[in-house]
Amino acid sequence: VLFSKSSNFVENQSGPTHESMQAVFDLQPFRPVVNLSSPTIANLSFTLYAVLGVNEKAQILTTFLWLRLFWHNEFLVWDPDECDGVSRISLPVKELWTPDIIVYDVDDDVSQACPYVYVNHTGHIRWDRMLRLVSACNLEIFSFPFDVQNCTFTFGSYMHTSKESSLSICTKTFKLLENTSGEWELVDLTGESSILQFGIDEWDIITFWVVIRRSPVLYVVNLLIPSSFLMLIDILSFYLPPHSVDRASFKMTLILGYTVFLLIMNDLLPSTANGTPIIGIYFSVCLALMVISLLETVIITNVLHHSSMKYQEIPNWVRVVILKHIANLICYRWPEDVRPPEEAQEEKLESSNGTTGPWVIQPIRYVLDYLLFRIYLLLITCYAMVIITMWCIWISQS
Questions:
Q1: Domain Neurotransmitter-gated ion-channel ligand-binding spans what residues (predicted)?
Q2: Apex CA 283: angle with CA 280 and CA 289, to 5°?
Q3: What is the mean pLDDT of residues 258-274?
């Protein structure tokens, strides 16, 4: 018995049988329309279940999707009243024609399609598919680890044009689940239908935009906080006595430790051909600042080393600029064991060859150390403000 609008089931048979639909199964290679000039309308429902992983180096996104396809088979229409009230059945998907919907930008597709489809008496068919997709995604890692990524999924027919198969989105049926486990958080999902023009043919396609946000806690705890601690220790090392040799060795130990930290951190940072993340620049500049700090210590140590040696008289304008104007500008307070230049001037002792004693070198070295320390603090403060501002601007625009 042909299973169609005008067909009836075998008498005393509760619902359709395999024999009653054999004629429909035989038409499986053909598009299920009576008039081949009419397109088969396929509707797509999209649910993003989870983000399984992101490979920044390979620019690959791994997701788990749940798709539902709806279409109409004009050969599978019956009257439930003539079939003991049976209005819905399930059939093997391999026995029926199915839309050849694929994802265009996929590197790997692990499909767990349901082997059966649900068919109601009007000929409408529903087919569920669960997909684990490894798809290409252009990742922007400049604001790593506070980055927000926008990846796309494009669905379309492999061989049927718009005249043969029309693809559209089910109204308000694409969504994302509230799944925030793992490193990535699902933020938003939007989609729209469009036409793909290729030569004289047109294909219906559906594009979904998936917005995901990285959870930065792991990177803040493992990268930013330890780096900030090392920079803080480097700043506090300026409070060591400038005449202490331990200050230089201490700073060199910090630089060595920071270098080891950078080597370990290199495995956590994403590496792509699109550019360098701002956090990588941040660590490089921090290392440069620590080197500048060591250079400042070398300069002060050099001045201290020669403080007991015989020097020619320091020009008066140098003493005035450093000991008076610069000292007042940076609000320098003289240590208890160092006399202010006005008092020391009264007790000035010059050797017979016209050299200057350590009373002049010592105040100058303290003022220079204080001045260079303030400049170093200013550089670090400006640098931190620039980094925080850039990150805030980038996050607000994402």
A1: 30-215
A2: 140
A3: 75
